Amino acid sequence: MLDYHALAPDLIIAGTVLAVLGADLFLPQERKWWSAVIGIFGLTLALIPIFTLAVDDSSLRSMFGGSYVIDDFALVLKTFFIITGYVVLLMSVSYIESDRYYQGEYYFLVLASLLGGMVMASSRDLITLFVGLELVSGPAFLLAGWRKGDAKSNEAALKFFIIGVLSAAILLYGMSLVYGMTGGLTFEEIRAGSVTVSDEPVFVLGILLVLVGFGFKMAAVPFHFWAPDTYEGAPTPVTAYLSVGSKAAGFVGVLLVSYLAFAESPEIWGPALWILAVLSMTVGNLVALRQENLVRLLAYSSIAHAGFMLVPFAAASLLDSGDLEKAFAATLSYILIYGMMNLGAFAVIIAGARRVGSGQLRDWEGLGSYAPGLGLLLTLFFFSLAGIPPLAGWFAKFVMFQAVLQDANGWTVALAAIAAVNAVIALYYYAKVVKGVWMDPVPDSINPKAVPGRVAPSLGLALGILAFGVILAGVYPSVIAEFTEAASFLAGG
Amino acid sequence: MEWFDNGWGLSLVVFLPLVGALALLAVPKDEEDTAKWVALLTASASLFFAIVAAFRFDYGDAGTFQLGTVKEWIPAIGSNFEIGIDGISLPLLVLSTAIVVLSIVYSWDHWPEPHNPKGFLILILFLATGMAGTFVALDLVLFFVMFELVLLPMYFMIGIWGDKTKMKLPGFNHEVETRLYASIKFFLFTLFGSAFMLLGFLALNLRGGTFSIPELTELGANGAFTGTFAFLVFGALFLGFAVKVPMWPLHTWLPDAHTAAPTVGSVLLAAILLKLGSYGFIRISIPILPNEARDWAPAIAILAVIAIIYGSLACLAQKDMKRLIAFSSVGHMGFVMLGIATLTPVGITAAVIGMVAHGVITGMLFFLAGSMQHRYHTREMARLGGNLKLMPVLGGIFGFTAMASLGLPGLAGFWGEFMALLGSYEPLAGLSLGVFRTAMVVGAIGTVLTAGYLLWMLQRVNLGEPSEEWATHEFHDADRFELVAWVPMLVSILAIGIYPKIITGPANDAVKAMIETAF
């Protein structure tokens, strides 16, 4: 007998996916945006069973021989994916409507991709994890190429697709090696089986290939090169989704395999992720310094943030189990906070690009003088990304540093110092955008009177939710920390 | 009044300006008068509660933290909302709230371009919360958040309302406006320092198991932090605080930022923001890591006297009046750091009174420089002269303040310098007498140089006959807003000069208690 209560959130989203596709057949052209309303309704509905599951005391519900569970980690991430989807839908309505084609399919694909993320959050074996990941990626390939007439959008989709397929192949190959060596598919079996084989080169290779596969999804250097082109070419709401939802999916995968499946061999993934973290932070930030296009700038910034999120992993390889939870919670907190502020930054770019007509920083100069509200929101999200208190980003950086320093040795202190220097470098390019918006004169090519004034209400709602979240989580970080602390029990086991 | 003593009073002092800032967001941009009154009222209320706190404060017990509270804030990382004041933070808290009110009064009719009083006032109020918050915070995380909270408003203040003159950067072909260069330089320097400061805080927490400053102080006194660990932590904290002070050679952001900032920005920077750094040394570095403080003290003393001499010599080379005052801050903060480095009650009390005196005096000098620039439209000293004849009141105040700044006995500036030198004659037992007595002699030479450049400035700006350029020009002397803002500062310069015990009394008890626990 299936536990339908536990499956309810995923089932509701699956139902919504079908409802959106079905409704699209009947909706007349001018009312296609109703599919977004259906989507939002479904997402809200899915929050109800998540809530009842969260307050239910028998917190761990395990199904299909331990392959699929509902625990605090799964619930926190499902909520994260749902809220991400909520905001992405709100951001998309006015953007996609102005293009006037295939709206129904658009929402269908976004929701399907989200469902993949929710499946990943519950998955506790390699197959389910892989299926979830592919469900995240498949629709995303199509979404990246949504602006068919635009060569850049085509390039974005093609690059993303080829890299996605390549990374899936690498990931699967790695998984097959791990399965071959340990004889298990669920994380528990792999962990038990890995004790005897942890020195075998093939097993080590398997772990490294799995990490490489996820590395592409996380857009960590040196597996990042697709990201800037794809981010720039894809429609901006899709980019927002890729940089948050799809990246988070990659991190969910790494969190699960590192802390659960490969928990016995942190000496293999620890150093590998140390290198990835340092490279991602440094390369991402240094290249971002020279970007003139806001979306590309955020693309490189999101690569750098992937580096910051990987920092606690590197520290984890040196810790005993009590402290592993802290490293786990640090990465999770970072993902949640990063999701909020990065979605916010993209929402501002969508709203601003509508007014200014371009994503080039040069054209955004002086925006604060004729659109002070947008300027304020941009300042809020960009300085939050930079980690300036009292905006949410400071807490993400704080727990990251705390995790890496908790058992200090030469490697972790060096990592902390590199991260600290990177935090300062990052400030420069975030501040450069803010400087342009507030301190530079309006360029001659922009006529502030001619640009349309209002932000679409749905986009305004998304901006409001995110701004509120960024301030609340910055002033009272317990709203994030409580959940991540509860979810991090996984790493202790 | 029990509620007041339970932390509510201090919370009101800290957060009322923030409430004011949020209220201002709702005020339409055109209603400038409403905006001004909202800002003035909330800032005044904050000052009022700070003064009430000064009256509720038990001076017989100045060494313990009072009027504070501990509330759960972020249990996941073990950080609490812990606040309180002792004899060291009380004068600084009153100073910072008072300077904010006076800055708003001064601004009433003197808005720098591009105008927009609403935005400007919001930034001042945010600064007010950050500054007051740093002085009452007794939790390292809270301290860090408040310490960083001042960055954004000051960045915008310099970047938007700052000096628009073009400048050429060495190594670059194109010119940039001074404000843009100065604001990002200020931001990057401070953030660099505070990123390492944060690492230091975290390290202390991981070793000590708490973020509470009183608890860590106790642990530190019992020798919980030693060896390489303590060395690295002290170094990290040193970077954070030394950039803020600023100590030579990390001072290069200061002349640019002070010169480029609008008048009120320079005043707040000089009067309060620099003190956050030296306060950090007194509140965190020394009591928590006493042994490291002892090891680093000679180095700090040497850097301090270099700053004194370097600052004075740099002043003598300036053409721009505001830049001269900015460099004088480097020298004066050198005396503060010299006092701290002695690790004696006399020296650290000297630092506290020096901080307050420098806050009032240099804040006043920046007000005057701003008002004079407003009238002459230049800060170039070669073009000025005979100011006293053109504007007797403003010129007189300028002369008085410069005298206070050069350390004339009987005015506030004297005590900080005098006691710092006194303290370095007899530093904490175990510190190298040779280094500190040499520092004393060099510092004494520094006081002569200080007198030199300030008198030289007075001679060029204030005395003599007005040049032809200005002789026929009609100037309006200090107006009522300026006088309302300045008279309290002038009175306190005189009051502290004649009766320094209002500062040294509570401070000395607190410092003594701190030194006794630490060493």
Describe this protein with a few key phrases.
heterodimer; A: mainly alpha; two-stranded antiparallel ribbon; 21 helices; B: mainly alpha; two-stranded antiparallel sheet; 4 strands
Order of helices and strands of chain B: HHEEHHHHEEHHHHHHHHHHHHHHH
Number of helices of chain B: 21
- State the end-to-end CA separation of chain B: 37 Å
Question: Which strands sit side by side, in order, in the main sheet of chain B?
Answer: 1-2
What characterizes the major β-sheet of chain B? 2 strands, antiparallel
Number of strands of chain B: 4
Give the helix/strand class of chain A: mainly alpha
Explain the overall architecture:
The complex is a heterodimer of chains A (493) and B (519). Chain A has a domain of 229 residues. Helices cover 79% and strands 1% of the residues of chain A. Chain A starts with a helix and ends with a helix. In chain A, helix 3 packs parallel to helix 13. By secondary structure, chain A is mainly alpha-helical. The radius of gyration of chain A is 22 Å and the shape is globular. Chain A has a two-stranded antiparallel ribbon with strand order 1-2. Chain B is mainly α and 519 residues long. Chain B has one domain. Helices cover 74% and strands 4% of the residues of chain B. In chain B, the strands form 2 sheets. Chain B has a two-stranded antiparallel ribbon with strand order 1-2. Chain B has a two-stranded antiparallel ribbon with strand order 3-4. In chain B, strand 1 and strand 2 form a beta hairpin. In chain B, helix 2 packs parallel to helix 4, helix 4 packs antiparallel against helix 6 and helix 10 packs across helix 13. The chains are: A mainly alpha (493), B mainly alpha (519). Chains A and B meet through helix 17, helix 18 and helix 20 of A and helix 5, helix 6 and helix 7 of B.
